[in-house]
Every structure is written in structure tokens, then in C-alpha cells.
Structure to design on (502 residues):
């Protein structure tokens, strides 16, 4: 199995239960939107998926690697775009990418070739020498997506990657990542609370108060209605 | 193995670039000990008589006495400042990038530690050059033998900063810790006055100073600057370093949770 699988995952901050028995799977090549209001547990789930912290309750499998037993193999197959910006603004685009490649053990010509390929994929090749600070918000995000592809991951995790971007940049980035799953077979988990970023074919996992409310293709959840309305009804009623 | 060294190199280069970029930080790091050397030491020279104690073989001026302590001060401030940048990094997110690398987490933290120590040592040598121009110099062999001492002391103090940063969630809390760690560590040590001098006023204070790992780091540097080896100082510094590194690794253990604030 090369996708992303989460089984019976629970996590508590002291007495506050942040995630409760969360189970879902994303098949290879699938774009899965993790939809949830603020405080639903998305960030906690992302922290567990990226092993910023760990839990003994439940299981995470990334591209066939168990996160508890083989964390390094799992992380090596994963590309992450965090909600917080993680670029070094005073370094050039190229230096930012070289640094990241080195953190994945890549250097020299191999790293150069991968960096060039990743920048071309996101139409940013001509910006390699610019300082990250000189890029606009949309391009910075695009750079972070280019960066997370350098080590050829099988699974992409993006935590609200369009926060703070204008409509055009949001659309461009959402389309890019949809293409990555459709054309390159990448497994994508895209956390958001914006329903317009989700297309009808996407898988949707709705997280609310630490639990999975729905896990199905978007069109099955909406049944012709608007996703926004369905989402609000689902998350509004039990609150 | 190659991957680990590639990462180490990249982390050191990144630290160096960040440091070069922040010129004000470099100037501040240099001005602070120089002010102590030129102003404080000049004032104290008349007040403080120093007897002949190892490694000194003759009477020395206070300026000469204080230089190893000021080298330690640079390492101490820098170790803390580097962990300040870790807290900042963590808030900014680039620490996440580091910690999600598929290399062992302990190695990534050691890389950060070595990178910040390398930067500190560059500053110490810059300070020693300026001190030499000011007329306070050491035997040539001392400049060489000081290097391993500076590495050991720098790693120990950097590890202390790292351990502290793992328990601090917000930048604001860090300022308090700086005051409660840096100043006591610096003043309750042999950096500014020899321990026997301290004992004249209070034996308890002397004992506290003698237990302070910073004292041993300073003594290690002091002896090394004269090409001499101080085994107890090395032992204590290594021991403290090992404890701080263990605390830092525990602090950054993912099972403990890196941040516990958001749901």
C-alpha cells in the first residue's frame, strides 16, 4: 500500500481530548480534503502525521511505512507544507531549496537536478536567484510546494496552504496540487476550512470535535447540494 | 552517514548565513565583552589585587584575568541567543521543517548545536584578536589549545540553551529565563573574580561558584589559553554538557509533544 492510512488515532492534551478514534485512508493518486472548523483537531492530526509529536493510541501508515515502527522511512516518503511559513526569507529561492534537499540527505548534482525539476514543475525556474522575501505570498507558497516535491514523496500533506492568499493565487495553488494527485499519482491530504477548494471527485473527510463525521467522495456527501451548506449543517448541529 | 553529514553541513551554512546577515548581532556580541574589558576591567584594576595562582606564573593585571571569562561570556550569550532563535524558529515554523527531516532527531539537534558553537567560536577568536590589538595577548600555543576547550565549553552552554528552549513555548517567556540563567551563571562564576577572592567575602558564595558549570568552562578556557590542561574543569564541563544534551533530547522527544497549545 502506498497511500496514507490512519487507524483509531486518539490524542489528548492533558484532559482535553483533541482526537478521538480517527480512522480514514487516502488511496494513491487521491486528493483528500480534510475539512473541519477551527479547533476540530486538524492541526493536532497534522502534528501526529508529521511526527512533531507521537501518540501510543492508534496507527499511522505512510506509503507502506508504519510511523511508529519506521518513522524515518515514513517521513522520507512524505512532503509537507505547513500552515506557518517555513521559508528563510533572507535566503534565495535556490538556497532555501538546497537547505531542504540537504535535510533529506541530497546534495551535489542530484540535488541540483531535483531542484531545477521541482521549480520547473511549479513554473518558478526563473526565480531561483531571487530572495524569498521578494516573492509575493502566492509565489512563496508555490515555492514551499516545489520544495516539498524535491525528495520525490509519495504522500503530500498540506495544512491550510492557501491561508492569506488572494483568490487567484488560491485557485492556482489548489489546481496545481489537484494536478499533482491526478497526473503524478501523489496521495494528497489537504486540510482546509474553505469548501470552494474542493472538487466533486475529491475525497472529503470532515473532522469535527476530534471525530470523523464523514469520509466519502464529495459528490456523495453533497448529493447535489452545496458542500458549504452540508458542512455547516453537519458541524453546526452537534455543537 | 553521508546524508547525516550533508545535513550537518547545510545546517552550519544556514546558521553562518543567518549570522552574517544579522550584522548588529555580530557587533553586539563583540561590543559586550569589549566594554567589560576596556571599561569594567580598567575600573577594577586598582581595586582588585590578584595573587599568583595557576595558570599564571607572575602577577597579572585584571584585564588579563578577565579575558577567559569574557570568552566564556560570548559562548554563554551566544548559546542562549541561538536557542532564542530556536524558539523563534519554532514559532515561525522552520523548526518544524528541521524536525520532519527523515534523519534521527537527536542528530538534527546535535547539528544545530554544533552550528551555533561554530558561530560562537568565530566570535571568540574575533574578540581575542581585538584584545590582542588592545595589548592583551596570550602565548601563540594558547590560541591553538584554546580551540578544543572552546568547543567543549560552547557545546555545553549551547546544550543548556537547547534544553531551555525545549521547555519554552513563547518568545516572551524566554527573556525571563535569560535573566534567571545568564546573569546568575555569569556573576556566580570565576569569570570576573577568582574563587579564593570570593571565599574572602562568603564561603557559601564560593561553593555556589565552584558548583557552577560555567566556572569550569571558564577555567578550562583560562588554562588552555596558556597551553595548559585542567582535567577537573574538563571533567565537570563534559559532565554538565552530557546532562544538558540529555535534557535537550528529552525535551524534544516527540512522545513528549513539541507544542501543546492548539487543537
Amino acid at each position: 500500500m502506498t497511500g496514507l492510512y490512519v487507524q483509531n488515532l486518539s490524542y489528548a492534551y492533558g484532559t482535553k481530548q483533541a482526537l478521538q478514534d480517527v480512522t480514514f485512508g487516502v488511496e494513491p493518486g487521491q486528493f483528500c480534503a480534510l475539512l473541519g472548523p477551527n479547533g476540530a483537531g486538524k492541526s493536532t492530526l497534522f502534528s501526529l502525521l508529521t511526527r512533531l509529536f507521537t501518540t501510543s493510541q492508534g496507527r499511522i501508515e505512510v506509503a507502506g511505512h508504519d510511523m511508529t515502527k519506521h518513522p524515518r522511512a515514513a517521513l522520507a516518503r512524505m512532503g509537507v507544507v505547513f500552515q506557518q511559513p517555513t521559508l528563510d526569507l533572507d535566503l534565495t529561492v535556490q538556497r532555501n531549496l538546497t537547505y531542504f534537499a540537504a535535510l533529506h540527505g541530497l546534495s551535489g548534482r542530484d540535488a541540483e537536478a531535483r531542484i531545477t525539476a521541482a521549480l520547473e514543475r511549479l513554473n518558478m525556474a526563473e526565480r531561483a536567484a531571487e530572495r524569498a522575501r521578494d516573492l509575493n505570498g502566492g509565489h512563496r507558497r508555490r515555492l514551499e510546494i516545489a520544495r516539498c516535491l524535491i525528495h520525490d514523496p509519495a504522500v503530500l500533506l498540506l495544512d491550510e496552504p492557501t491561508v492569506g492568499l488572494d483568490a487567484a493565487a488560491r485557485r492556482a495553488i489548489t489546481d496545481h496540487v489537484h494536478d499533482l494527485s491526478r497526473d503524478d499519482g501523489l496521495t494528497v491530504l489537504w486540510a482546509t476550512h474553505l469548501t470552494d477548494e474542493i472538487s466533486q471527485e475529491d475525497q472529503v473527510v470532515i473532522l469535527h470535535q476530534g471525530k470523523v463525521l464523514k469520509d466519502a467522495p464529495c459528490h456523495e456527501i453533497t448529493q447535489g447540494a452545496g458542500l458549504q451548506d452540508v458542512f455547516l449543517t453537519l458541524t453546526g448541529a452537534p455543537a | 552517514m553521508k546524508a547525516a553529514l550533508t545535513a550537518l553541513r547545510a545546517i552550519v551554512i544556514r546558521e553562518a548565513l543567518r549570522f552574517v546577515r544579522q550584522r548588529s548581532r555580530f557587533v553586539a556580541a563583540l561590543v559586550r565583552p569589549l566594554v567589560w574589558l576596556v571599561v569594567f576591567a580598567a575600573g577594577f584594576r586598582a581595586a582588585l589585587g590578584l595573587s599568583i595562582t595557576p595558570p599564571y606564573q607572575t602577577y597579572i593585571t585584571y584585564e588579563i584575568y578577565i579575558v577567559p571569562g569574557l570568552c566564556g561570556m560570548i559562548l554563554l550569550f551566544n548559546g542562549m541567543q541561538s536557542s532564542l532563535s530556536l524558539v523563534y524558529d519554532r514559532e515561525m515554523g522552520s523548526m518544524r521543517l528541521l524536525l520532519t527531516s527523515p534523519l534521527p532527531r537527536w542528530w538534527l539537534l546535535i547539528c544545530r548545536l554544533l552550528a551555533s558553537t561554530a558561530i560562537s567560536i568565530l566570535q571568540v577568536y574575533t574578540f581575542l584578536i581585538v584584545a590582542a590589538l588592545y595589548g592583551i595577548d596570550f602565548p601563540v600555543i594558547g590560541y591553538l589549545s584554546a580551540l578544543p576547550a572552546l568547543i567543549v565549553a560552547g557545546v555545553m552552554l549551547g546544550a543548556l540553551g537547547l534544553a531551555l528552549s525545549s521547555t519554552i513555548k513563547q518568545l516572551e517567556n524566554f527573556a525571563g529565563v535569560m535573566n534567571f540563567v545568564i546573569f546568575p551563571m555569569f556573576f556566580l562564576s570565576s569569570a570576573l573574580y577568582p574563587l579564593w577572592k570570593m571565599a574572602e567575602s562568603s564561603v557559601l558564595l564560593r561553593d555556589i561558584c565552584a558548583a557552577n558549570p560555567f566556572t569550569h568552562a571558564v577555567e578550562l578556557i583560562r588554562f588552555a589559553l596558556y597551553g595548559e590542561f585542567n582535567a577537573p574543569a574538563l571533567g565537570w564541563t563534559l559532565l554538565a554538557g552530557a546532562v544538558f544534551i540529555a535534557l535537550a533530547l528529552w525535551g524534544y522527544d516527540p512522545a513528549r509533544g513539541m507544542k501543546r497549545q492548539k487543537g
User: Anything to note?
Assistant: Chain B is about 80% helix and 0% strand. Residues 259-263 of chain B have pLDDT under 50 and may be disordered. The two ends of chain B are 37 Å apart (CA to CA). Chain B touches chain A at residues 2-4, 6-7, 9-11, 13-14, 17-18, 21, 91-94, 96-104, 108, 254-260, 262-263 (CB under 8 Å).
